[in-house]
Amino acid sequence: MDSKPSPLANPTATTRMKTIAIVSVLGAGLLGIAVGIGIEDIKKKAEAITRVDSFHLTYAGISNPDGPIATGWIPPILPASTSHLILRRDTDNNQACAMFRVAKEDRQKLFDHCSTVTLPLVRLPDESFTTPIVWWPRQFNDRNYTFHKYSTDQSQSRVMIFAEENGVPDTLWYWLEKSK
Which of 8, 98, 129, 167 fits a disulfide with 87 by CB distance 3.0 to 4.6 angstroms? Predict the structure, then answer.
């Protein structure tokens, strides 16, 4: 039986193995520190992110069991013709705003569940919440918009506002009205 000499018998091989082992340990340690810092940084950023944007092309996406109607971010009165819903919600501050389309023949059915209100009676969403949104109107006013108020209960603890731009037949804006 042939026996090979042990690498430990060769001082050059032993030094090379020790160097590889030291570099491996140091590399793994540095990688661990870098990964650890990266993970902590990601965790902090994830905790800071409370605003969630979603897009639903059809009513099926809006009304599915995990969708915005089932989770309470959008009212259940939206008609089946609702489409192209873009929703921004802030889970920490309980704010939401959306833009969507409703077929012309279904708009009145939607507004039958609401009362028409004027701007002085409407609390607009916080500008800090809506300003970075490119699709959100920069200014609402009574001259260009009609406002519809919907509440999920008699106490009006959760009030939702729909805004329709006069002369724009298919797009509506919506937001949860913040409590006083």
Answer: 98
1 lies in some domain: no
State residue 49 phi and psi, 5-degree precision.
-85, 110
Which of 159, 165, 115 is closest to 140 using CA atoms?
165
Let me know whether 43 and 78 are in one domain: no
pTM of the model: 0.68
- Do 108 and 165 have their domain in common? yes
Quote the domain boundaries for residue 142. Answer: 51-177
Is residue 113 assigned to a domain?
Answer: yes
Q: How does pLDDT run across 95-138, given as a tens digit for each residue?
A: 899 999 999 899 999 999 999 999 888 888 888 888 888 889 88
Instruction: Tell whether 74 and 145 lie within a shared domain.
Output: yes
In three state form, how does the secondary structure of 92-159 look?
A: CCCEEEEEEECCHHHHHHHHCCCEEECHHHCCCCCHHHHCCCCCCCCCCCCCCEEEEEEECCCCCCCE
